[in-house]
């Protein structure tokens, strides 16, 4: 298949395997404040973030950095890049800041990926009085909510279709999905409401 430049047209776990950003301790390791207790009842109190990767039809990798709300399941930040670098992480946090009410100081939980250990990230969270929390090393269950979202994204948005030809196409397809997910996708976890509807319902209660 490689010699003929042939690719499988359906979603493949192998081709879109989980991105591993762990590179030992290169900075600050934050305490695991959640310990798999994912029962926060109020929006904007506990958020989850991670990076995943997608293989494009041009054989390049795309990296997706997202932040979701534990309570409402709303996607508060979603950025795509051809590199899992500082710019990608910074854009993700900046998008989050633009979406959050000014009076909240959420816990932001991640794995121990090197991006989340470095000074530029920890200082940015501190400047906005966000509280950093980290999973135990190599324990994906500690950040299950964002893992669950990425699974939905890859199966609902990308499964059953040919791989996106390039980064621009993936961004367009993903933007449409994120909008649908936030405003139209209903689930039992949000009492039959979309994430945005459930967020407003919960805040008004």
Supply the key terms.
205 residues; disordered N terminus; globular; five-stranded mixed beta sheet; alpha/beta
Set out the fold topology.
Layout (H helix, E strand, L loop, with lengths): L45 E10 L5 E9 L5 E7 L4 H14 L7 E4 L8 H9 L3 E4 L9 H15 L8 H17 L11 H10 L1
Parallel strand pairs: 1-4, 4-5
Antiparallel strand pairs: 1-2, 2-3
Short account of what is shown:
It holds the Pfam family rve_2. The protein has five helices and five strands; from the N terminus they run E-E-E-H-E-H-E-H-H-H. It is α/β, with parallel strands linked by helices and 205 residues long.
Average pLDDT number? 91
Radius of gyration: 17 Å
What's the total count of β strands? 5
How would you sum up the major sheet?
A: 5 strands, mixed
In sequence order, what are the helices and strands, one letter per element? EEEHEHEHHH
- Binned, the helix content reads 25-40%
